[in-house]
Each structure stands twice: as structure tokens, then as C-alpha cells.
Amino acid sequence: MSNIGQSIPRADGPIKVTGAARYAGDQNQPGQLHAAFVSATIPAGRVTTIGARAALAMPGVVRVLSAADMPRTHADLDKITVPPLATRFVPMQSDEVVYEGQAVAIVLAESLEAAEAGAKAVGVSYERSSFVVPEQAPALPGDPKRGFYSAFNQAEFKKGDAAAAIGAAPIKAGAEYTQPSRHANPMEPSAILAIWNGDQLTVYDAAQHVPGVQSVLAATFGIPAAQVRVLSPYTGGGFGIKGFVWPHELLAALAAKVVRRPVKLVLSRQNLYSMVGPQPQTTQGLHLGADANGKLLGISHVVSNVTAVTDDYVEFATVASRSFYASDNITTSSRVRRGNMALPSFMRSPWDGPGSWALGSAMDELARALNIDPLDLRLINYAEADPQSGKPWSSKKLREAYDEGDKRFGWRTRPKGGALDGHWRIGYGMADASQGQTRYHSTARVRLKADGTAQLESSFCDIGTGPATVLPQIAAEILGLDPKQVVAVAGDSTLPYSGPAFGSATTLSTGAAVQQASQRVRDKLARLAGWSPDEIKMQDGRIMRDNDSRTIKDVLGEAGVSELASDGALDLPGGAFADHGSADYPARSFGVVFIEVGVDQDLGLVRLRRATAIYSAGRIINERTARSQMIGGIVWGWGMATMEASHFEPSLGRWLAKDLANVPLPVNADTPPEIDVGFVDEFDANIGPLGARGIGEMAATGVAAAVANAVYDAIGVRIGDLPITPEKIVQA
Ligand code: MOS
Q1: Average of per-residue pLDDT values in the chain
Q2: pTM attached to this predicted model
Q3: N or C: which end of the chain has fewer CB within 10 A?
Q4: DSSP of 671-689, one letter per residue?
Q5: What is the DSSP string of 340-364?
Q6: 118 CB near ligand 1 (under 6 Å)
Q7: Residue with the nearest Cα to atom 4 of ligand 1?
Q8: Is 697 near ligand 1, meaning CB less than 6 Å away?
């Protein structure tokens, strides 16, 4: 029986639910000091004095470090790009304050309690400057020298003449759609333990990409990467905030260097609002023009997002309008609004999450203006090829997903025109889900042992998405083993290089490397047995040819070999770190979300009653972990649609709430018993040898639009400002 496709449970499940898995914050080192940040209470200005005497007098407090004590980062750091670096601004390198919550001092103590108490006792005086509220800042073109850009995401895109086409179109739709900033808040906060041993730095870190942390820390000190070891065997969720390398990681290592003792830093929930980045508030002007049959004549999409004063994070929500639907005339434009906030960054799911919200809402308005079913409007404008490049997709089976979703949800047979269930008004909405595909250069090593087990080694991070389960399945399939007999060793920079756990690409990238390494091991075993690799089969721990069959154990034992090991890789053209599919075949994953909501107009309540989502994502390696990813993403999307918002308080220049007590998030009670998720049968040979594309982040796309469309269906009111909270329903 084939291992690939099997719904096996998570290999790391037992160790995580029993608390045996040791995360970065669980690590300890003899002689370690605990660090706590003193955070700026002003949004802009400079630190004039740091009063450390009271803190230093407290029991257990060892040092108070300020900008005056911190070594300057090495010039090599200036050469590091974003990513892997998250932000070019490193606090405590000067007395400058550019956002509220910024680190201005670090208290080091013998216990966490002493460090936190010491941090409260540090007195900081400031010279205040005027500050800019990001939401109120002018929308300006971003500066590629100040942030993350790629050839794929030019700030301005123009194909044909969208303004003229929309102007002349008989049917028009669209509006301004807005979405607040949101913070990722994984269960495990960011944390790091930094240990110096001479010139050798070892860190345990909560990371999504250990080689990225390694290269940034090496540059921070101007030392070779080989002198930095990064360990991140378990990561308790990341959602993007552990993808790039943030200043707290540099500051912990710098502090450890100063005091010559290991330093352990676990960010507080409040720190997560200033030390790592949120998804930025976006304002999206999206306008569509169509002919009377629903054919899209033009798409215009102008996005602006808030960012820091120091760096330009651009939320390329415009990608949706360049990718989802066929049109001869597409114009997109990205702008940033710079203000005194911590730098925003990638958060599940960047670009397509916000973009699909605006585009999915506008398409629903267009369908209503045309009096066409929104599913038919999608079919009329089905993008057979990538609208941006004009090239064929690596693979796309969205039509099959539409059919399957329609059947399972009963879309076309839904009650139309304001169904009621008691006092609940029932509404139905749908939208496209899609996420651009990234591939990352990745390598892996597979060792087949004489006892018939195997080990796979790669520096990937399993942030809860399942690669520690799925990658062994790939090796097990090729080597004819039970997946339980294949152990993954990961999250260590001394292991073969893996691409990052962001951009929903570990399975296809590291998986391709595991596949190649496994095939090479298999070939070695065949030759060791004296057989041709082309004529063997491997199954149940045995190697077979025609009617001959031997155990792996016997073949290795008789040859006196303790293991067979091979390396494999996914190499990208030009030796690239990442790309978005091959030059001939741009790639993305596709899907459709159908939502049924109930709305209580008196109380303003919106309830998720039913959801069906079907995806076209290439080959699915483990249906169970894949479904789990998508269910989680849909719930995340429900949070985006109806709950989540981080409000920037304009008079104080800070986030209004900085903890989970004041930020509503979906819980089990908010979700229906079953969220129906499925995948179409597909093998994408153009994206890589495994046939799989990315899935995880796509699940959080499309949901907010489908919910807003369902709310419109229920009460006839279009809400274009997320989240759809009770007061907006009541006021509607
Ligand atoms: Mo995802 S925001 O690319 O970790």
C-alpha cells in the first residue's frame, strides 16, 4: 500500500501534547541569565537617560544594558537582504525611538521574575518628537531599497488600459475595502537562548527558517556562518512572525556577548506587539468593469498599507487582481503609509489573503449588478493562463474544485432570497481561494540503516504544519518502509539546508529533496544487492526482483555496511534561493470556499453555520494533515472576517490592546462541528517531481470575502470594512 496519500496522524503529536517537546523557551543552560526588555513608552523621540540604579539594587538583577552598552552590529549586517532580515532598524544601536514598545534597555537577571521586576524599576527619560499615525500618513510609492520586493511583485503593473476599459464598460462594480492590522499571536511566543563559547555562537530559537537566523547572526558579528549554530527542533506556530529574523534575536546574542553568559529571552505577549510585525492595515480601491455577459473588461486595484518610518513592508494584495481572473486590461498599484509603528510583515496569508478579500467582495457586487450567479461569473472569467505573464499555469484544476464544491455544498440548489431559520437570517456566499506558489532551494539527506529503519535529515522547521510527518511518508514510500520507521531530524543549521517554513512550500521543496535522496538510497541498495535499480521493488522492509526477495537488513548485513546515505536537492534555475514556479510555468494553488452564515440583525451576531472548501493544490501527500491545515486556515479566515483587529490608538501612538484578553479570536464555540474540506485529484509535474503544490496559507484566502458575500445575501448590506462586528451589522 502506498504511503503517499495515507492519512497518518502527526508523528510529533504525542510529544507535543504531552509536553515532552522542548521548545526554545524550554531550553536552559548552566549560568544563564534571563532577559526582559524595557520598552519605549513614547512613539517617537530619543532616550535621554536610563536610570538603572533601583533595578540593579534588586535581588537577582545582574546588568541593565542600554544603547550605550550594546556593541554595534558588524557592517556585514548592512549587506543582508530582507528576507532573511525582517527589518533594517535595530533598536538600542542609538538613542533613537521610532515606535512605542521598542526596546530601549535590557535587564539581565538570575530569574525571569527578577528580570521582569527589574525592567519595571528602570526609569527612562525621553525627549519626545511629534509622531505620525500610520493610518493617517499619505500613501506614497514604496522604496525598494527600504524593503522586501521581488521581480514578481513590481509596485506598478499595467496591462492594457484598465481605466478606459472600466470607464466604457456597461456594468461596473467595486468600492474601497479596508482591513485592520492584525497580530499573529502563535501559542509559543518568539524566544531565544544565546550561548557563546569563545567565538562560537549557539542559539535555540523559535524559528521558521534556521539557516536564515544563522546567516543574520553571523553577519551581526562579522563571523563565518559556520561559527553560528541555530537549533529550532520545535516551533509552536509561526504564521509568518518567525519567518524573518527580528531584532530581539540579534539583541539577545549581543547581550550574551557583553555579559559572557548565556542569555535567555522569551518575548512577552505584549512584546509580540512591538518586537515582531503584524499584518498591516490595508485600504484597497478595487474596480471592475464587465460587458453585459459578465466578461471582465478591466480590473483596477490600488492598495495602500501602513508601514514603519524605517522600512517599507509592502502588502502586495494587488497580486490577486493580477492572478485570479482573465482580463485584457489590468492595472495594479501599491503604496505605503509610513508612521511610527513596529514594522509590519508577512502574516498568514500575506498578499493573497488581503487581496482575495477585496477582489472576492467586488466580484460578488459585480455578479449582483449583472444578475449572474457568482460561480458563473468566475467560470466566465476563468484564467486558463496566468493573467500577469500570459504563460500557462503549472497546473490548475479549479473547474473540478468548483464542481465538487457545488455538489457537496449544494450551491446551485441553495435557497435564494433571504431564507430564515427562526429569527436568524440565512445567507450564502462564495469566493475563490488562491495563493501564489513559492519554491525554495532545499536539500536533504536520507540514511537507510542496517536495522531496516531510516532517518531523514534536513534543517526544515515543523511549525505545526506537518512536514515532520509528511516528509518521512515520502521516504517511506520510496524505501518500502512503514512511515513510523522513518525518523525526521530537523531544525538544526548543521543539517542539510532546507528552505524556509513560509510561503507554504516545505512539502514541495524539501519534499523534492527527500524524494531524490530516497531514490538515490534505493538505487544504492539495489546495486549492493547486485540488482539493477530499474528492476527492483521495495516493500515491507524488503527489496524484491521478480520472485527474489531479501530484507534490507540482510543486504546491508552481508555487505558489512552499517547504513546507506544519500543527499538530494531541489535546485532552482540560476541557483536561486526562491522562485514562483518555472520560467515556463507560473504556479499557484487554487480553490473555492462556500459559506453559510446566520445573521441576527437585532443583536448584530454573525454565525458560521457551514463551510465547504475544495482545493486544487497538486498531489496531496497526507490527506489528514492537509485537511487539518485547511480547517485551521478557514477558522483563521473566519477570525479575519468577523473578529480580529489591532487598533492603533491615534493620540498615544500605540496599539490599544496588546494581549489575547482584548483581541477576539475564533474558538471552538465559534466554528461549526464540521468544516467540509476536499482536494481534487491532481499531479502537478511542472512544479516539481513530487507533483505537490502548497496548501496551508491558501486556506485563509477567500474566506473573508465569502463571509461578507454571505452576510450581504442574508441582510442585503455590503460591509466593506473588516471585521464584520456586531455594531456594523446593527448600524447597517
Ligand atoms: Mo507565511 S506568513 O509565509 O509564514
Answers
A1: 96
A2: 0.97
A3: N
A4: S-S-EEEEE-----TTT-T
A5: SSPPP---SSTTHHHHHHHHHHHHH
A6: no
A7: 240
A8: yes
